[in-house]
Amino acid sequence: MKVVHTSDWHLGQQFYEHSRFAEHQAFLDWLCQELVLVEADLLIVSGDIYHTATPPAAAEQQLYTFIKHAKIALPNLHIVIVAGNHDSANRIETAKPLLYQFDTHVIGRFDKHKPEDVVKSLMTSSGKINVIAMPFLRSADISHLDSDESGYGLAVEQAYQSAYACIEDENLAVIAMGHLHAKGGDISSDSERNITIGGFDSIHADVFGDVPDYVALGHLHKAQKVANNDCIRYCGTPMPMSFAERHYKHQVLLVEFEGSRVKSVSPRYVPRYKEIILLPEKGGATLAQLCDAIEALELPTEDEPKPYLRLRLNANETDSQFRHKIEQALENKAVHFCGIERVSPQMQQGDELLFEDLGKVSELAPKTLLELAYKEQIDAQSTLPSALEKCLEEVLVSLSEQGKS
Fold first, then answer.
1. Strand 229-234 to strand 127-132: parallel, antiparallel, or no bridges (unpaired)?
2. In whole angstroms, what is the distance from residue 270 CA to residue 69 CA?
3. CA distances from 99 to 24, 39, 178 (A)
4. Most-buried pick from 62, 154, 193, 328 (CB within 10 A)?
5. CB half-sphere exposure, 223, CA atoms < 13 A
6. What highest taxon heads this organism's lineage (predicted)?
7. Residue 206 CB neighbour total at 10 angstroms
8. Strand, helix or coil for residue 405
9. CA distances from 161 to 37, 211, 278 (A)
């Protein structure tokens, strides 16, 4: 049996106010061809189908058109989709009756009183398989949370165990889906929205237990194994969601089963539709250096997609005409311009930069913003105190609960 694992499509995303519709369409067209090429039996999408809870109609149409085309190309294909933290559970659930006619199973929320709803026993062309289609677990979806980290992990573990108990044929292979931050996962802090429930934003991989033969995770944008386990995986995003992700090897994962066991897990690399350029790659540059670098850019022809370009300007640059001069340098350049970062060298630690461009602030995680403010206002050499971090978590949880009331 051949299973393709993907996640975090973020359909409808605007990248620095530039539409990504064409990029997403290129990915979906490629994915449809790839499913045919590998003769896939099952496609699983582990959350964050959309970038917001209220995606544009064009983004929803993209999803439904993809499903239609995939089923035309592979009539026996099954598809399982779960909601992520960016998705609206209600919106995902609304289309359930219609999508079921296309062998597409969608789960928007977990009902702790009906855990059997997330258990999908599917008959594919290569045999039967059990899928635990666990969506992003909101605080209301799981049992009471204790005030410590083990209590949160236990609540998530109980959700999975209650679903496992509903499996009827235990001899079949089991895939457990999830949309969460497993401990040790490498995050891209300026594009992944922190998942904070009960004050804790990550859980230990042990919560999945010994039942699943493969754990298909979403949320982290970098493809990676969890706890060095070949069968607990994040597939990552199919395209960069921020400039921090420009060097990621974006992929979907092909999981091949032999009987009820995983035979192999291999990446299928997604072609990059648009390049992402950061000038300079590290640190900042003077205005003159940036203008020279812009002039030296080797850009695609008119028939090729324009790359995204973002500039890093030294914070001590004093030329008040810098924006006008950069605009002149960019004139007639085939790029999608994504703004200027003012870089303070004294605030750099490796590649971690202080972003003074207010347009970037909304894309930073709250903890990242607090860390930057602490270093700038309090102590540039020390790490964020745990007490201050805990205070932020309590505020975020309170705001989240108020938003649901």
1. unpaired
2. 19
3. 20, 21, 21
4. 62
5. 23
6. Bacteria
7. 12
8. coil
9. 35, 9, 45
Inform me whether the pLDDT recorded for 94 exceeds 80.
yes
Tokens 């299973």 sit on residue: 3
Taking phi over 0 as left and psi of -120 to 50 as alpha, with beta for the rest, 43 belongs to beta
What is the C-alpha separation between 27 and 59, in angstroms, rounded? 13
Range scoring the smallest mean pLDDT among 96-110, 151-165, 370-384: 370-384
pLDDT for residue 372 = 75
Q: Could you report how far apart the first and last alpha carbons of the chain are, in Å?
A: 44
Q: What is the pTM of this model?
A: 0.81
In this predicted structure, the answer to whether residue 199 has a pLDDT above a threshold of 60 is: no
Mean pLDDT over each residue of the chain, to the nearest integer: 86
Average pLDDT over residues 99-124: 95
**312 — pLDDT class (breaks 50, 70, 90):** very high
Q: What is the pLDDT of residue 130?
A: 97
Residue 346 CB coordination number (10 Å):
10
Would you kindly state where each structural domain of the chain is located, as residue ranges? 2-269, 276-364
For the sheet with 261-269, list strands across it.
Answer: 104-107, 78-82, 42-46, 2-6, 251-258, 261-269
Separation of alpha carbons 369 and 366, rounded Å = 5
Tokens of residue 275, six digits: 């390049």
Long-range contacts formed by 298-302: CB under 8 A, 24+ apart: 299/333, 299/334, 299/335, 300/275, 300/334, 302/334
Q: How far is the C-alpha of 124 from the C-alpha of 214, rounded, in Å?
A: 17
Rounded to 5 degrees, φ, ψ at 243 are -70, -25
Q: What fold, for 2-269?
A: Purple Acid Phosphatase; chain A, domain 2 (3.60.21)
**What average pLDDT does range 92-112 have in this prediction?**
94
User: What single string gives the DSSP state of each residue in 120-166?
Assistant: EEEEETTEEEEEE------GGGSSPPPSSHHHHHHHHHHHHHHHHTT
pLDDT of 228 > 60? The answer is yes
CA 92 to chain centre: 17
- Give CA–CA dist 214/231, Å, rounded: 5
Task: Say how far apart CA 120 and CA 123 lie, in whole Å.
Answer: 10
> Can you give the pLDDT at residue 24?
98
